[in-house]
Specification:
single chain; 98 residues; mainly alpha; 0% strand
């Protein structure tokens, strides 16, 4: 509702800075960053554990590191390359289900 009433450039933490206090905006942005980083790390560890179930000779740390490298490479390039990679990963998911 705030986004339609007050269209501004920025993320949701800008509203905290504008309507409450600068510290509130900073804290909400910082908490959002920490939540994303923690979720990403948890997903990488879970992926490593799942792959280790099928390939027990390779530790889960290697698979987690491989996932981190792939995510870094995808985020280091332009948005177009990220979209293309998402397309192919979705295609792999669909073919796996079929």
């Amino acid at each position: 509702e705030l986004s339609t009433q007050y269209p501004i450039n920025g993320l949701f933490n800008t509203f905290g800075s504008r309507f409450v206090d600068e510290a509130c905006g900073f804290a909400s942005g910082y908490n959002y960053y920490l939540a994303c980083v923690t979720a990403m790390a948890g997903e990488l560890v879970a992926a490593g554990i799942i792959v280790e179930f099928w390939l027990p000779n390779v530790t889960s740390m290697i698979w987690s590191l491989l996932g981190m490298i792939i995510m870094f490479i995808l985020n280091a390039f332009m948005v177009r390359s990220y979209g293309e990679a998402e397309y192919w990963f979705a295609m792999i998911k669909v073919l796996t289900v079929i």
